[in-house]
Amino acid sequence: MLRKYSIPEPVAGGFACATIVGGLYYAFGIQIEFNLDVRDILLLYFFAGIGLKADIVTLLKGGKPLLILLVLSRIFIFLQNFMGSVLRLCLV
């Protein structure tokens, strides 16, 4: 069923884990905490691995849709940082 609807296994596993942890919390008041100390370094490895897979030939094949995606990404990154800065200044 996961392959039929193109749902990645990590997404299904994360949803199942969230459902179980949420169910335990709401049914029995059991609070489960995860150790996130290594999360940041693993995220760096993950995104570096994705970036290392990209080469100039693959990027050039992306064409106009990739250029649009890059432009929109830049705009939203700027807006996110701008709004975060404005909200921080307003709340201080």
UniProtKB/TrEMBL annotation:
One of its GO terms (biological process) is L-glutamate transmembrane transport. It comes from the Bacteria. GO terms for cellular component: membrane. GO terms for molecular function: glutamate:sodium symporter activity. Keywords: Membrane, Transmembrane, Transmembrane helix. InterPro entries: GltS (IPR004445). The chain crosses the membrane at residues 12-30, 42-60, 66-91. PANTHER family: SLR0625 PROTEIN, SODIUM_GLUTAMATE SYMPORTER. This is Cation/H+ exchanger domain-containing protein. It comes from Shewanella violacea (strain JCM 10179 / CIP 106290 / LMG 19151 / DSS12). The lineage of its organism: Bacteria, Pseudomonadati, Pseudomonadota, Gammaproteobacteria, Alteromonadales.
